[in-house]
Amino acid sequence: MVSINSNELIALIASFMWPLTRILGFIAIAPPIGNNGVPVQVKLTLGVFLALIVAPTIPPLSHVDLISIAGIAVLMQQLIIGLAMGFVVRVMFAGVEMAGEVIGLTMGLGFATFFDPQTRGRSSAISQFLVIIATLVFLSLNIHLAMFEALINSFKSIPISTSLHMGFSVQRLAIWGEEIFKVGMLISMPIVAALLITNIALGILTRAAPQLNLFGIGFPITIAVGFLMLSLILPYLLLPLENIFQHSLDAINNLGSPLPLSPTKQP
After folding, report:
1. Widest distance between CA atoms in the chain
2. For residues 75 and 161, what is the distance between their CA atoms, to the nearest angstrom?
3. Mean of pLDDT values over 160-175
């Protein structure tokens, strides 16, 4: 007969709860599984199954009670690490949303806004369209599987410990926020450049023929040019999106390593 005392039972529960907390923190914010439209039961079930896989591979923490101050601190630490990893992926989709916002405002569709089920807020039509395209590319390239693989490997690069140190580079995570603007400008730049040339041509045209109604012909032309350029660049979005998602996976894998020191200039 197998007998388990209370201390062993608490240790088993703790060894399961700590990886579960990090995994649930990641699932709660990382798209597309972090979408508010995904049922909570699905997220919780996925997190439990992943934790059951990871928990036997993690060395137990000795002399740490789950309901003690140290145990609660470890839980909070794992939650923050999971949220930080999910934030890395979320930034990439936020950059795609920013590209859609810039394109929509430039082509005159800034007023065409809809309810975004992912953020539960306002989002432009072009932004939602690009996010759907990015999500389809994300799933078709199996980036979601690589994402969960990076999450499981993080238990080796950022092990569970009682140290007050978070285990990842906060500076690297803060600098990662600039990727929103990089991705947004990378995707929207061709269309914005084409619309800029269109606006310059309209300005020259109205200068040469002042009787033309700029507001009457300007909006239809810019909207048509915007949709035309959007249709032209769609076949070429696969490689940039693949590089963007791969960059996010590399960032998750390198989150546990500090930033390299910049070389000092010699006098």
Report:
1. 96
2. 10
3. 72
Q: What is the pLDDT of residues 197-215, one digit of tens each?
A: 988 888 888 787 777 776 6
Give dist(CA 84, CA 21) in Å, integer: 13
d(CA 27, CA 82): 8
pTM: 0.82
Model pLDDT for residues 1-52, shown as the tens digit of each residue = 456 666 666 777 777 888 898 899 999 888 888 887 788 898 899 999 998 8
CB 206 within 8 A of CB 214: yes
Task: Specify the amino acid at residue 233.
Answer: I
Written as one letter, the residue type at 50 is: L
Cα(83)–Cα(260) distance, integer angstroms: 23
CB of 150 closer than 8 Å to CB of 252:
yes
The domain locations on the chain are 6-253
Structure tokens at 114: 């809809």
